[in-house]
Design brief:
This protein is mainly beta. It is 3% helix and 34% strand.
Length: 148
Amino acid sequence: MKWSYNHTWSKTLLNLINARCETINIKLSFKMAKRCLLLQMVSYSGSELITLSSSVNNELFYLAGIYTKYNGVGGCFIVTREATLLLSEVHQRMSVILADYDLDSWLAREDVFDQKLLENMECHLVSTIVNSIRNNDKTCVESLPPDS
């Protein structure tokens, strides 16, 4: 499965990387999409690290995703929503984070965007080394001093 999404009817590759939760049930582009879950321990928005308080204990959380096949190749991506107040200074959008009790509902095509889970979010500055896929170690999640 590739990290991108293409319409099943498109003649050219679009390689979309996310979709707004507000339009996934409206846009023709996503009519044939299936829903999926993406496991995460941390999530980034630019160089801000976004974690759930439970992820401090190395627990996973879930992001809402959709996928389809284009010319026999599967592709998926994250569904986004308007950012919470905490994250709105970093970016206007954020990933849709699902609570454990909403997973089955999401997969059954119900829209579940529970705000209570988002109340446990924390955010801290990390190094821009996270912007390269070559970097894959604990320094990617270490907090920088606030004045960096």
